[in-house]
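Example pasted here:
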Amino acid sequence: MISVLKASANQVTISQTEALRYMGYGKQKADKAVLHLLDDCTQELENIVSYRCCYTKIPLLWQEDGLDIGFACVKSKSLQKNLCGCHEAFLFAATLGIEVDRLLTRYAQVQPAKGVVMDALASAAIESWCDLLTEQIGAGLALRPRFSAGYGDLSISWQKELLAFLDSNRKIGLSLTASHFMVPTKSVSAIIGIEGESKTAKEAGSRENRCSKCGKLECRYRRM
């Protein structure tokens, strides 16, 4: 069964610290003008964002030539490594909604500086939304860091099968272009392995944990 989960703007905390990191601020502190713009953009984003997710839990069947997840047999060493020891997993797709895309497009055209800030905040928002929904659907479970198409050797084209299985277009208005880009753009799809019941979903889903499991060593946003 495919379930749908929604959240209101006041349930999801958009991290301005994360947004600044996406904007390239490391140890360098943002000036007052940037911080003021962050506050304004955060409020505007919260007024139009639509947090939605569709998800389900599936059994994992390990085979010699790949991993059988029911609707597909996945041949990805990176994914198999991530899910090693798991016999169940969550599949999910999450989005901020199409109004966020329209807002980003408008500001990119008429106020590029504000567009950069808004884009960074939207990126931080979808990450926060994914963290919250992971904590909610995996309450009481030990979860592996979420793993998305495009990580390691898992082809980006796998999203087509995943979103079709989740019926994401009908459930939450999330679709793919012919080039496998998600629409709305501020969206995420992923698989999360279920290990057991020893630690919380929040711990397993933390950014530090995800970064330690990801093979993208060259990522500018990587945390170790």
